[in-house]
Amino acid sequence: MNRVDERDAYIGIGSNLDDPERQVRSAIADLAHLPESRLLGASRLFRTAPWGRTDQPAFVNAAAVVATRLSPRALLDVLLAIERAHGRHRDGTRWGPRVLDLDILLFGDMRIAEPGLDVPHPHLAERAFVLLPLADIAPGLFVPGHGRISELLDNVDTHGSEPLPETRAP
Q1: Which residues are registered as beta bridge partners of 12?
Q2: For the chain, which residues make up each domain, given as ranges?
Q3: Could you say which of 21, 39, 99, 139 is the most buried, measured as most Cβ atoms within 10 Å of its Cβ?
Q4: What are the residue numbers of the active site?
């Protein structure tokens, strides 16, 4: 596998199908077993309104941070394998319902623009379902080109988003 120095990678996690809370919790457990990586923490779980297409069930979202020696591309490959193991079939549908969605939100302070891999994640600064979980684990985190998570969260509509009770992930 491609190796880099260890960096903190922030992963967005979401689901709105097939028991979303279970899917998100299971994905966080899977992140604890990534090769050449350590799970450093995970946010509470949040119920959030759908974004893009509103004619679908609410989502359960979380964020996790891992310290990893994997390259960004190798990390993406492992995340896609976890999605497939959960039953996700990527068919090109944008913003639709999904069993599991895992996204690299940030990878250290890197900016990456490659086919299939954009970091920081596009639209991160506009989405409450990403910012709320990130603020839960790293409110002072700086997003290259955008600013601090806490400041970005002040500028998005969080209506329809709430933490699930007693859902601090492992």
Answers
A1: 63, 103
A2: 3-160
A3: 39
A4: 88, 98, 101, 103
Farthest-apart Cα atoms in the chain, separation = 43
| CATH class of the domain comprising 3-160 | alpha beta
Q: What is the pLDDT of residues 71-115, one digit of tens each?
A: 999 999 999 999 999 876 666 666 667 889 999 999 999 999 999
- CA dist 40 and 56 (Å) reads 32
Considering the entire predicted model, what is its pTM?
0.90
Amino acid letter, residue 163 = P
Burial class (CB in 10 A: 0-12, 13-18, 19+), 95: exposed
- The b-or-e profile of 132-154 (16+ CB within 10 A means b, else e) is bbbbbbbeebebeeeeebeebbe
Two tokens at 114?
């490659």
- Cα(31)–Cα(51) distance, integer angstroms: 25
d(CA 26, CA 155): 31
Query: 72, 68, 83, 1: which is closest to 33 by C-alpha?
Result: 68
What are the residues whose beta carbons fall under 8 Å from the beta carbon of 92, sequence distance 6 or more? none
Quickly tell me which residue has 């946010």 as its tokens: 43
Residues 6+ apart with CB under 8 A from 9: 37, 65, 66, 67, 68, 72, 75, 104, 106, 107, 108
Q: Which residues does residue 162 pair with via DSSP β-bridges, in sequence order? A: 47
